[in-house]
Amino acid sequence: MSLLDDGGPIFAQIAAELANQIADGTVGEGERVASSNELAAFYRVNPATAARSLTVLSDEGLVEKRRGVGMFVAKGARDRLVRARRRRFADRYVRPLVVEAARLDIGLDELLTLVREELSSAEVTTGGRA
């Protein structure tokens, strides 16, 4: 887990970190997630703050409570999360890229070449994890 920063409410940062773990497969479907007390101890926050982060994930359908047992990653949570993030990615990055390319008269072939070059460059700097 990463450390929290000063960017936004703590409960939202914890929820985002847990969502990242679901998205990248660190915590798989049907697996137990840390309890609010465990999260509170790890992040050194009030248990109510940690519980609120779990409530956010529950409201989003990413985790479900099993009475007396704990919170678990919901069935299909990763797929739903990845689909939503891909839509946001397209809205935030791809659409503006395409609009700007059109303004600059960059055609599809040239745009794909530019993207491939950037991917190759990213693979070199990230050790192949582009």
Cα(first) to Cα(last) distance is: 21 Å
What is the tally of helical segments? Answer: 5
Strand percentage lies at: 5-15%
Instruction: Specify the overall morphology.
Output: elongated
Helix content: 55-70%
Structural class by secondary-structure content: mainly alpha
Order of helices and strands: HHHEEHH
What is the typical, i.e. mean, pLDDT? 92
- Largest beta-sheet details: 2 strands, antiparallel
Strand tally is 2
Which strand order do you get reading across the main beta sheet? 1-2
Describe the 3D structure.
This protein is mainly alpha-helical and 130 residues long. It has five helices and two strands, in the order H-H-H-E-E-H-H. Helix 1 crosses helix 3 (47-59) and helix 2 (36-43) packs across helix 3 (47-59). The protein is elongated, with a radius of gyration of 19 Å. It starts with 9 loop residues before the first helix and ends with a helix. The mean pLDDT is 92.
Q: Which descriptors apply to this entry?
A:
single chain, 130 residues, mainly alpha, two-stranded antiparallel sheet, 5 helices, 2 strands, 62% helix, 6% strand
